[in-house]
Amino acid sequence: MASNAIDQTRRMLSLVTYLRERPGAHVTDVARAFGITEDELISDLDVLPLCGTSFRGGDLLDIDTDGDRIWWHNPDDVAAPLRLAADEATALLVAARAVSTLPGLRESDRQALLRATAKLETAAGEAAGASARLSVTFESEGGVFADVDRAISERRRLWLRYYSPARDELTEREVDPIRLFAVGHTYMEAWCYLSEARRTFRLDRVAEIRILDEPSSPPEVELRDLSEGLVQPAAEDPEVVIEVGPGGRWVAEYYPHDSADELPDGGLRITLRTPDPTSLRRLALRLGGDGHIVSPADLADSARLAAREALAAYDRAPDGSYDRQEQGR
After folding, report:
1. 188-221 as b/e, with b when 16 or more CB fall inside 10 Å?
2. Mean pLDDT in residue range 141-170
3. How many Cα neighbours within 13 Å face the side chain of 133?
4. Which of 6, 35, 209 lies closest to 108, judged by CA?
5. Residue ranges of the alpha helices (H) in 162-296?
6. What are the phi and psi torsion angles at 288 (to 5°)?
7. According to the model, what pLDDT value does residue 233 have?
8. What proportion of the chain, given as a percentage, has pLDDT over 90?
């Protein structure tokens, strides 16, 4: 089970102190001490050099490893007393106050954050006054994030009401959360008992969420490599061909595709793959006169039918009958 963001942050803070006291520590010894794999430790070490005492990058942690031992080259520099500029103090105080209001935050973590904020306000002096005039409000998915993060930490199952835009419906399902990640939006990867498969859920599409008493026990799965983006069509996925006019060329920018061939009118013939071709009906409706599905034939037919039904709905008068003028067309 992957650790959540809060657990990783705690571990990395402890790791800084641990490495300072043990120059040249062996990777195997450090991983064993923290109860993590060597790969997880190396991943943490890849992040630490991006951290430091200055937002401007002048005092970053100079930590590296040769795969066997870990070296920290500037511990004395980082240990120097911290001096924050006014804009740095303001940013820290605003962020700290915002995080302290997150629903689902452990009370012990909230109190610790508030104590640290109070100390920072004292140290910041006049700069603290500017931060008091600023505030941050998290989007509605913040509460969902907190519940998912808690469920991962406590290894508990979740119940969701989730909106699926491809089917335009709300479904209820129980899931065992695996991890949180962000690729443009924030997502939860989980084992879904409704689908009996691993699924990815966008947090802003969760209409309702509850943490269940039942323990979470997702099957052992290999975590997806997201370095190439969230949508990564497989070679065995069904092929779909879409033709778009000049006004629909944006499709090639937003949808991963195998090819995009130029058409004489300035449009494109786009070939792509997707595990759920029916999800592209909504794209066809959005394109309107700027494009249409060419193949597969059954998908093209269903898209045309959906378009006709949408037009018929617009043509109906408020009393449910068809407008006479529209009938005469």
Report:
1. bbbbbeeeeebbbbbbebbeebebeeeebebeee
2. 83
3. 4
4. 6
5. 251-254, 281-287
6. 60, -125
7. 58
8. 13
Query: Residue 168 is encoded by which pair of tokens?
Result: 């335009």
Please name every residue paired with 72 in a beta bridge, in sequence order, or none if there are none. 63
25, β-bridge pairs: 70
∠ CA 64-67-72, rounded to 5°: 25
Q: How many residues in the chain?
A: 329
How far apart (Å, rounded) are the C-alpha atoms in residues 53 and 51? 7
Query: Tokens representing 155?
Result: 């290894």
Q: Are 189 and 170 in contact (CB under 8 A)?
A: no
Determine contact, residues 189/179, Cβ cutoff 8 Å.
yes
Phi, psi angle pair for 287, to nearest 5°:
-70, -35
Q: What is the enclosing helix (H) or strand (E) of 141?
A: helix 141-154
279-288 pLDDT tens trace = 777 778 778 8
Cα(302)–Cα(168) distance, rounded to whole angstroms?
15
Q: Is 42 helix (H, G, I), strand (E, B) or coil?
A: helix
Q: What is the pLDDT of residue 87?
A: 66
Tell which wins on pLDDT, 258 or 58.
Answer: 258
Complete edge-to-edge strand list for the sheet that includes strand 25-26:
25-26, 69-72, 63-65
In which band, very low, low, confident or very high, does the pLDDT at 236 lie, cut at 50, 70 and 90?
low
Alpha helices (runs of H) in 22-134, residue ranges in sequence order: 27-34, 38-47, 75-78, 86-100, 107-124, 127-131
